[in-house]
Amino acid sequence: MPFPPILRPRLAAITTVAALMLALSACTPSSSTPASAPASPSTSGAAAGMPSAHIHGLSVNGETGRVLLATHEGLYDMSKKPAVKIGPANDLMGFAPAMDQGVFYASGHPGQGSSLPGLLGLIKTSDGGKTWEQLSRQNESDFHALTTTKSGIVAFDGTLRTSIDGKTWKTVDAGFVPAVLAGNPYSDTVLATTQEGVQRSSDGGATWVRDKSAPLIQFAAFASAREAVGIAPDGTVYYSADAGATWKQTGKVTGEIHAVAATEGTDGNPWIWAASATGLMVSTDGGTTFRPSDAD
């Protein structure tokens, strides 16, 4: 089944969506920072204050309970009630958490009135999105797919590139166009979802192998260095206990999915967050079932 147009990486915009509903308690484990126990999503109602926006990325932090949404209009903290916009209104096309708290990488386009270059290249925040510094490839790259690994950064701007420090880059002759790049700061395994199937790298994006036995996955995310989840074009959810080497089907999520994040669970089942056109859904059983994040 081909991917819908919204996931082809060179498109400049994704379908406009309504404000997402979300409020989370503290102490949910992060996809970038392993933790011992997740807290239940809050049931206190919708997070107001965020305009309709194009969604490009989703991050759930387990140590702080913070949920960040990267959009066409900037970065939003969806764990606040109402939702709080953080920092400048840049179009964050690519967005990825790093190992350290509050550190994120992004790419895209400047917001209205910004003095930043037309192509942001790679930018970095160390204060949770309040301020950003320009690292490299300004006016050269708009990374629509972006992730971090134990050894550096993997990104795609029409060409697949890797970087150890975010400043100097190596070109990778991969031969595929990724819709999503999924990595984890505690591992050098990277997954790339493509029209032809899942590509997998075990060396930080330097070399790749397509797994012909893997399901066709649109979105992928790591809950830990070993646990990965994937969502197919029809919403079928898959789980991998070995960093994408093998997969098993767990359930199905409905709606037009725009971004996915995952965290470790306490019972061997990762928690999965999926941002759709109507709100944020969460699964606490590895993707077997989903419910709105504000449901009782």
- Main pleated sheet: 4 strands, antiparallel
How many structural domains are formed by the residues?
Answer: 1
Give me the CATH architecture, please.
Answer: 7 Propeller
Strand and helix order: EEEEEEEEEEEEEEEEEEEEEEEE
List keywords for this structure.
single chain, mainly beta, Methylamine Dehydrogenase, Chain H, 4-stranded antiparallel β-sheet
Describe the 3D structure.
The protein is mainly β. The strands form six sheets. Strands 1-2-3-4 form a four-stranded antiparallel sheet, with no helix packed on it. It has a four-stranded antiparallel sheet with strand order 5-6-7-8, with no helix packed on it. A four-stranded antiparallel sheet has the order 9-10-11-12, with no helix packed on it. Helix content is 0%, strand content 36%. The chain is globular, with a radius of gyration of 17 Å. About 16% of the residues have low confidence. The protein has a single domain, classed as Methylamine Dehydrogenase, Chain H. The chain is built from no helices and 24 strands.
Briefly, what is this?
By secondary structure, the chain is mainly beta. The protein has no helices and 24 strands. The N and C termini lie far apart (35 Å).
Task: Outline the secondary-structure elements.
Elements: E1 55-60, E2 67-71, E3 74-77, E4 84-86, E5 91-97, E6 104-109, E7 122-125, E8 133-136, E9 145-148, E10 153-156, E11 160-163, E12 170-172, E13 180-182, E14 190-194, E15 197-201, E16 209-210, E17 219-222, E18 228-231, E19 236-240, E20 248-252, E21 257-263, E22 271-276, E23 280-283, E24 291-292
Antiparallel strand pairs: 1-2, 2-3, 3-4, 5-6, 6-7, 7-8, 9-10, 10-11, 11-12, 13-14, 14-15, 15-16, 17-18, 18-19, 19-20, 21-22, 22-23, 23-24
